[in-house]
Structure formats: C-alpha cells, structure tokens
Design brief:
Shape of chain B: globular
Number of helices of chain B: 18
Order of helices and strands of chain B: HHEEEHEHHEHHHHHHHHHHHHEEEEEH
Structural class of chain A: mainly alpha
Helix content of chain B: 40-55%
Number of strands of chain B: 10
Distance between the termini of chain B: 47 Å
Largest interface: A-B, 79 and 94 residues
Strand order of the largest sheet of chain A: 3-2-1-4-5
Number of strands of chain A: 5
Largest sheet of chain B: 5 strands, antiparallel
Strand order of the largest sheet of chain B: 3-2-1-4-5
Oligomer: heterodimer
Strand content of chain A: under 5%
Radius of gyration of chain B: 24 Å
Shape of chain A: elongated
Amino acid sequence: MENPLDIIKSPEKKEASADAKSVRDLIQTFLKARKNLRLYPENNPIFLKTIDEVYKRASDILSGREGIVLRVTRNEIFYGGEQVYEGAGKEDNLAMFFFRDGLRELVIKPELTKEELRRFLGIISVDLDRETAEDDLVTLLWESDFQSISYKVDETVLLDEDTGYEERAQEQAKSGACTDDCIRQAYDEATNEEDVVKETMIVPITDDDLRYLAIEIEKDREDKKGKTIEIIFSMLSRVSSVTELKDLAQILCGAIDYCMKQGDLGRLVLIVTRTKDYMGRASNDQIKTQLRTVVAYASSQAVVRTLGLLFESGVKVDEEGFNQYVSVLEPGAVGPFMTLLGEVRIPSVRDTIIKTLARIGKNSVDTLARGLKDKREAYVAGIVHVLRLIGGRQAAEQLMKFPPHYDMRIRREVVKAIGEMGGTAAAPAILPYLEDMEQTVRVAAIRALASNGTEPSLEVLLARAGDKKILSLDFDEMKVCFEALARWKDPKVLEFLSKILKETSLFNRSKHSEQKACALYALGLTGIPEALPVLEKYRDSGNKLLSDYAAIAIRRLSHGR
Amino acid sequence: MEDSKLQDLAKDLINQLAVMVKTSQIHDPSNVAVKSSIEKVTALIEAATSSGEAIMIELVGEYFYANGVRIKYSMELIMNFEFLMREFKKHGMGSITFLSPVTADEMVRFLKVFIATGFSAEPFEEMFEGVKSMNNIEIGVLRKVRDDMEEVDIRKTVKSTYFNAVSFTQGVMNKVRSGEKVNIKRAKRMMQSMVDMLLSEEELLLGMTAIKDYDDYTFHHSVNVSILSISLGQKLGLSKNTLVELGLVALFHDIGKTEIPSEVLNKPSSFTEEEWNLVRRHPVWGVRAILKMKGFDALSIHAAIVAYEHHIHSDSSGYPEKMYPTDLDFFSRIVSIADQYDAITSARVYARTPLPTDKALSLMMERSGAQLDQRLFKFFINMVGVYPVGTAVLLSTREMGLVYGNNMAFSDRPKVLLITDESGNKIQGRVVDLTEKDDHGSYKRTILKTLDPHKYKINLAEYLL
C-alpha cells in the first residue's frame, strides 16, 4: 500500500488549496451530521434536514470532479496532499475512527446518491466503541456495498495470529516434493495405460432445479430459533457428563435471553415448559438442579429487565405470549418485577407490571410490602396498587401497618385500599387518616370507611358526624361524611339523622343548618320511604338551604322508588 | 437516468440479450421466437436511450456494468447472465454500446455477425469489422483484467488470504479449546475478504483448496469447506452478505472437533469403535462450542444448526440422530456437500486414502439423493467444473500437467501447468492454454486423460503454491 505520507510530503500546486478548503467544509458538515444523526431518530425533521443539507453540499463539491480521494492517517485526513481534518486530542476524532479499523483511503464519487450518503452518514455515526458492537467500520462499509463510495483498507491491522504461519505451512507442504524418478515413474505408468479421454461430468441445470432453489432460498429466511431449541433439547436427552449438562443449562439460559430480546415469548415459554417436563422426568438430582437454574432464569432480573426494555421500546408484545410467560414465572420473579416497576416510565407499561405483580405476588405479600418503604413516590404508589389488586387479609395487614406516607397521593391510595380490604380491622387503621391535614385524604378516609361497610366503621362515622368538630369542616366535606353514613340502611343511622334534625342551637346557626342539610341529603340517599314525612316537613322550611336539600332528598327517594 | 431505474432496465436488457443470442443460435432469424426476442431487446434499448444518452453494457471481471453501474441480478437470472458472460468472453468482447434506438433489421445483422464469429480464430477482430458499418451499435474489446505481473501479485494475495484464514481458524480453535473469547469482528472481516477474493479470483482460491499436503488438516479443511461453500453459494445466486454468513457458518462447522483428543483426530490408522463414537460426538460439541463462544444471535444460531446437521444425510441417516421433523437447513446441505468433497479428496480424513476429484464427484453423485441434496449437488458439479484446478492430466502431446485455471467458455480446455515434457522429463512449470491453436486451426493440446496425483505422488503444493 502507498504510504499516505509520500503524497503529503509532495509539494502541491496552489490551486489545490481552494479545492482542499471545500473538502474541509464537506468534512465539517459530515461531523455536524454525525452529531445530529446520533441525537435524532430517522424520521425526525432535523435528521431529514441534515441529510438534505449534507447532500446538497456534497453534490456541489462533487460536481465537475472525478471524485474526492481522502487519505487517512491516525489523526489527520488529507486531500491531494493537504490536510483537511485534524483530530489529534479530539474526543470524537474522525480520522482515528477511520484509521483504527484499517481504513486508509476513502473515495467519494460524483454519482453519490442521497440514499448512499444517508447510509454512509449512518455508518460513521454508529458507536463502534461499545463492547457489544459486533461489526467494525470496514464491515459496515462492506455490507453497504456502495456504488459511489469506495475505500482501501490495510488488512494487516487484523493480524494478531501467527504471522509466520504462511511461510511455515508452504514450506511443510512443499517438503514432500516429488523427485524426478517419481515423476518419471508416474509418466511411464500414465502413458502405458490405454488412452481414455475423461468423460465430462457436467450435469445441466434445469428450470426445475432453479424453481427448487428459489423455494429453498425463500424457506431459508424462516426463523431458525425453533430448530436450535429442538437441537438443544435433543442434546439434553443424550447428555453424558455434568460439564455437558452445565453447558446446556447455560445455553438454554442464553436461548431464554435471546427469545426475550426478540419478543418471542411463546418460544421462551416453550423452553421453560419443556425444561420443567425434563425436570419432572429426570431421575438424577444433578440434572434436576441444573434444569432448575434454567426455569429460574426465566424469572431472573436480567430477563425481566430485558422485558422492560422491550416494552419501553414500543415493540408490540404479543399479549397471549406475555400471559403465558407470566403463567410460568417463579415466585422469585416478584423481586425483578418490583425493580422493573421502579424503572419503567411509560404509564401503560407500569400498569402491565402492576397487574403482573398482582398475578405473581399473591404468595409474596411480605416481599411486596418491603417496597412500601421505598423513597420513590410513584414506586410506592405502584406497590400499594399491587397490594390492593391482590386483596385479602395479608395484604391489608401490610397496608394497615404502613405508617402514613409523606406523599398525599399515597396516603389517599393506602386508605382507600385499607377500606376495601381491611374488614373489621380497618376502622382503627383509618382513624389517623381522618385527621389528615389534607382534605382529599380525609375525604378518602371517610369514603374508605363507607366502602369498608363494617360495624366498627359505622361507629367511627357516627362518632365523627355527631362530633362538634364536624362543624368546623366545610360543607362539602361534611356532606361526604353524611353521604357515607347513608350506605348503612340501618335504624341506627336513621335514628342518628333524625336526632341531628331535631337538634336546636343558638350559636353557629348557619353551620348547624349545613349539618342538618347534610342529614336531609343522607336521608334521601338511604332510600328508606319512612323518611319521607320528615323530608316533606323540611321542604316547606323557611331556611332555603334546608328546603333545597329536602327537595333533593325527596326527588331521590321518589326516583329510588 | 436514476441508478435504480438503470439497474432494472439494464438487468432486463442483459437478460433479453442472452435470450436473443440463445434463440438465434438455434433458430433462423425469421423464427417467431427470435423475432419476439429481438422485439423485446429493441424495445428495451429504445427505453434506455430515450433520454438521448447511449447505453453501454460492459463486462468487467465477473460482473456486468451498465454505464458504469454494476448490475446486480436475482437468482432466476443467473443462467442467462452467465450465458451472456460466456458469449462475451468467447468473442473477446468487453462491451456493447447502443448509441440510440436500434431497428429489428440492424439487430438481425448484428446477430448474424455475432453468431458467425463465435468459432473463428479471432472473433473480436472479425466481429469488429462486421459491426463497424452499423450506426447505432459499437463493441469494445474485452479488457484484460490484469497483466502477468499483476497475476503474480494476485496469486500472492490469494495465498495470503487463504493462509490468514487458516491461521485465524487455528487461533479460533485453540481459543475455543482453552475457553478464551473469540474475536468475531475479525472473523467477519476475514470472511468479507475471502468473499471479495472469491468473486474476483474464484479459480485461484478454489485452487488453494486442491492442495492437501498440510499437517494441520482440521484447520485447512475448515477453510476449504468455507471456500467451497461460498463458491457454491455464489453459483446459487446468494447475495454477498449471505455468502459471508455461509462462509462463517462453514468455517465453524467442525469446531466441535476441538474436543476430540488430538491423538485420536490425527491417528494414522483406522478408528476403533470407541474412537468413532468420540468422533461422532463432534457435531453436538460443535453446537456447544458455538453457543458458548458467541451466545445467541442469527449467525450463531445458523452456525450451530450447521455444526449439528452437517453429518446428517438427506434421508435422515448419518449422525447425530435427527430428533425433529423439520428439513435439514439449506446451509447444512451446502456445507455437507463441500465437507464431503474436501474430506474424500484429502489424505488425512480418518486415515482413508484420498480420491482424485473426478472419482470423488462420481462417488458423491452415487450418494446424492440419499446422503446429499441431489439438486444442490448438480450446482456443485457445475461449480467445480470438468477439470478442477489441481487435476493431473496427460495431454495429447504426451506432456503431463496440472490444471491451473479454467476457461469459462470452453470448460474442457483449461489452462495447464506442464510438469513434464513430451518425453517424461520433469520440467519447471510453464502454463499453456488448451484453447491455443496451431497454424492449421487445430488445437495444439487436448486432454487425453486425468491421472490420480496421489497415486503418482505428485505434490500439488510444489506446483500450485
């Protein structure tokens, strides 16, 4: 290969400078484009505008030329012997990006199309430094098979194997060279035999052969995961050593990972169920132990995290496959899913994780409850939601033990859940929430008592509605309390409401009127016809508030009837 | 004209030109089939020149270019593209340019000249005279892709590519054996070079697979199978990227042999039953090695399948036992053919005597159907050719030689490296072209018969390396 420095050293004509300047500008537009392409997705207007701009610039520079030949050294790029890029010390050194994979010359021809330019810019924007990158720059350029971009590569950068191999192998192969005698003997034997011209063996290719080929090539595009899994299970059935067994278990874990990355949950489930099947039939404990690791792996942090990435990438995950996956999850999956709950950002994905945790966490309430101590509000709210969906005494106990959280939304959710699930033990747990500084929480607590519907809850409500402190609340909050009482169609409630209506007061009359209006409203909600005479009496009251609420209650009763 | 439009138009034009030449070689110009093909060609030329620009179809190496753009073709057009390529080469014609629309009469005149010059001693010169008077058609001579000095360099590059691949394979196998990480980026780069090399220098690279006198059989075998598979894949019309995948998959097909103790693998005598049982495990070990080395991705999955299936026969016999209903993978069937061919023409496979190429192909032909994919094997035979590079031959002049390079237009008249003179004296190789004719128009040399180089202890490496 030509040494680029030879050209650099040669004196260039003056006209080349203007040329070099335009090429320098072109490289700068490449660099700008590289930044934009890394920032924006392909359909983003900025991405598209960037391509248009670079293409225009490139077309202008290329028109009237045979092409641009760029020579690459470690830190510099040269055009016609002049430096057009200097990258030493730069973090994103374009020259080094080209150089390290062996690229030494890049030629851009005037026939460059916009599509080719887009692909080229795409390639130089790839982060090839990352560990997982399987291709280098030259591979990507090769795979693109550009018509208008060519390059020269120094392949010696790849030589890290045995450099003297070629010489040695040739020497060894030639060492058995035939002697003159040997050739003579061969010649004599060959010429003494009868002369026969070798029959031509070429078989003509027919249209049928081509049709067959077309079908086979098409078939070859089909997914090959299924067959690979079949092969692995075939191998499992004939495993002959512990090492082999361990390797196969590790390979099956890899297969699970791969299926998850591909969103092929159906196949992932197949691996788990077949492994379980093998486990069931295995007579040997060592086999069982190894296979157990495979089954557990499907529920591991790594696999669940991949699921999260899959969900958040927007790839449509097959619902049936996902449901099947959840059905094969182990209790150990609760922890990973809890972690995932704290990581996902998309609300619909969060909902899916919550529902999944509710499905798999029924026997892991204690583990789930540990999440209540977390500092992230959204996460704790999620866990509360999970416990609420799980329901039952155990989940309720965990929530009742949970001290009121500093976040109002969580307190509201917790009290709701306690009301729903706490049974007769809920009322005392709800009490602190009735004194909450936030009205929405207090209202939620009242409603929680109503939804709880037990005798102790009624007692708490009656006490609250009858307490003088209720007069300090605003009308709406007071109304909620009476509304809650109406849930109980109980003589005790009727008696209490009647008592409120009969009470007279000299002080704070307007608040007392509000209390009575709430009682009238509650009577309407009870749906008990016996309340009608009392309500009719208040409908004709001179107090507008009372008369209005009595009318509302009568309408409701009539409607209910 | 946009590149994509030009691609489509030129692809059709090359295809139709081939059809037209083919039918004209069989029928008279007044025949309906010829007329119809001429109509199609002239219509395509009219479309291609409608903007006032000429269209030039040029043959460079093994590719057609239209106005400088390389024309890619799909699998169903292979036969016609290759036919036209052979015709161009036979006529020494490198390009044909249609300056503006061509009439049917003009085309008939051109065809008459083309067919008449097909077997002349100087086809291009005669054709040039015939075409000179035509207003809308010009032809150009076939450019010699390289001169002799360049040929020496190319041979050197091919050898380096081959030995680099063997050295790399050795490195990979050693790493797999010791549980080290393998650099797949490098494997891909190496295979891309190999595919490039094969597309431009197929014969030379195939010639490298003919030399079987190395100690490191397993590594050379892996590379040979890779080259033979890519070459077959190319004949089957696979894309360049697919050829790289096929080459890599083939390279790793025997990676499971790293688990077979070397004293068994390199045993000079026949295997015991116990040793055979070990050898028969290598496909299974191959799957393990590949999936452990690379984890799961499209390439490793394909490689694992081929490693597992390459000894399973079409009728499901062979080893290991095939416990699933799906057909053998397409790549497995390709690699299986390449593997068998290289194995039975090599000296160190489980201590068997190697067969000369023609006998190997005959044996494989018998086995095809039950063991090998019959149709793919037909393509393989066409790929290897009548006289594969390295075939030892006795010529009508009583000179002995080795096939050195094939001739696409005349498959039975390859280039031959002479190793003896007509009296049987060993000579320093001189390459002769069997298409060469004497002053009377007769061929100077013709192959009389093929010889088994192993039987006569002819060391191919001495001549071909």
